[in-house]
Amino acid sequence: MEPRVADTLLPLYHQVYLLLRQRIEAGQFASDAPMPGENALAAEYGVSRLTLRRSLDQLEAEGLVLRRRGSGTYAAEPALARPQRGDDIDALMAHLSAMGEHTEVRLLAVELQTPPADVALGLGLAPGARAQKSVRVRSHGGTPFSHLVAYVPEDIAARYSRQDLATRPLLQILRSLGIRLAAVEQAISAVLADLDTAAALEASIGSPLLSIRRVVRDDKGRAVEYLQAVYRPDRYEYRMNLSANEVEGAL
Length: 251
Description:
single chain; alpha+beta; Arc Repressor Mutant, subunit A; Chorismate lyase; 2 domains; 6-stranded antiparallel beta sheet; two-stranded antiparallel ribbon
């Protein structure tokens, strides 16, 4: 039988792992039904069952598959690629809550500082005013996927603890303080990993990252968070559901 994986320097098990991960992240395996058995997958990719099992071991270690004794192997329900609507705070909160339940967070640093000029402008701070800067890394299945640098005005940051930052999404914390979140401004682009983000995300320096800059406002129009986040694109997707409204004269 001819091999069904590429003839490259990558080990066979890693090639199969990459192909299966791509299918899992694309939602090609339902999370409520077992994946094809080891024999079937090994035959599909033209590898031995031992090689296939090694691929599944790596997927399991990353939390992408679940093995249930006597039932089979299941694709884990994607926690990092839930649809989001750009105009709906509740949808964003639901997404962040789901992410918080399925991921781990590591708090790297917290400090009060006079923020950079662009951040101060985004937060609408008076000259010399301080903000709390927090740096966190989120991981899924032991693999980091996002590096988050958030700024919050000093008077708001004084109302929650370091422990809160280490365990809960920041927008969830703000909402628990009685702050009514009303608007989000976001800019999405791509950046290259620098020394700090590459180390935190276990990525190569200069590798491409998804970048999101977000300003969150309360119901009075005050900016309550300025976020600078980067994500590994092999571990995270940002999706939006958009619907069209008929407008006279629109193309």
